Amino acid sequence: MPMTWIKSILVVEDDADIAKLVRMHLENEGYETTHAEDGREAIQLYDQGNFDLVLLDLMLPHVNGMDVCRHIRTDDRYVPVIMLTAKGEDANKVAGLEIGADDYITKPFSVIELVARVKAMGRRVEMLGRLDDEPGEKVLACEDLEIHIDKRIVTRGGEDLKLTQKEFEIIKILAMTPGRPYSRRTLCERAGVESFDGTDRTIDTHIKRLRAKIEPDRNRPTFVMTVWGFGYKFTDKFC
After folding, report:
1. Ordered mean pLDDT values, 10 residues apiece, the chain (239 residues)
2. Domain carrying residue 147
3. Most buried in the list 85, 122, 129, 165, measured by CB within 10 Å?
């Protein structure tokens, strides 16, 4: 992944008024935007362009947003995708995140919030690029919490928190994409957590133990946040 700020954004939205409003606010912030009115046009523009981010409505004519996201994820180059979903489309949110979307925002949404999400995604992309490009030990830092990728240890205030291998995998996955929500199932699969009760809720036990070690107050977590009805994410508010 190149170490760069997000500059060029593909806005995929069939509602002309919403697309115009979103583009106006993004361009006021200095972003370059291109508009696709349907899924077919989105795929064509994506293949012809060099975009740094895709804002993707799921309900589109001709080709739906899920298929557009799948197409984007066949590209060797990583391009973040923020889904635009209607209120109550919880199943679509889960499905979209499972196939490779990075974040979602629910309609009706505040354009100010949307711009904030785009900026947060830019910080995330730059952090990952810096992690890939810089020589030496790779460390993710958030306040006094440090995740040492190569050493596979996590410290807070310089003290080794003695995480288990599963706990380390979970915090690494979450912290490498701060703000990106992960479903319980995805965390189980990526961290190699086996279910002991036949459900995805097994991950909750690991999160509880992880929080007891990394959080200053396990009852008021500031690092590993709950996404209600879905899963977990790492905070992006102060990293």
Report:
1. 70 96 95 97 96 94 94 90 83 81 88 90 75 69 89 92 93 88 86 67 89 91 90 79
2. 135-234
3. 85
Last residue of a domain, one of 95, 129, 163: 129
- Work out how many domains the chain is built from and give that number: 2
The SS3 assignment for 14 reads coil
Q: How many Cβ atoms are within 10 Å of 99's Cβ, its own excluded?
A: 14
Structure-block tokens of residue 15: 């509602």
**If you count them, how many residues does the chain have?**
239
* Residue 133 phi, psi (nearest 5): -90, -30
Strands 8-12 and 32-36: parallel
Q: What is the dihedral of CA 67, 72, 73, 75, to 10 degrees?
A: 140
- Is 157 among the domain residues? yes
∠ Cα 98 183 14 (to 5°): 50
32 is written with which tokens? 């370059």
Lookup: tokens for 103: 């974040």
DSSP of 85-147, one letter per residue? Answer: EETT-HHHHHHHHHTT--EEEEES--HHHHHHHHHHHHHHHHHHHHHHHS-S--EEEETTEEE
Q: What six digits make up the tokens of 74? A: 């066949």
Residue 113 lies in a domain: yes
Domain membership flag for residue 2: no
Locus of tokens 């009805």: 229
Which CATH number belongs to the domain containing residue 47 in this structure? Answer: 3.40.50.2300
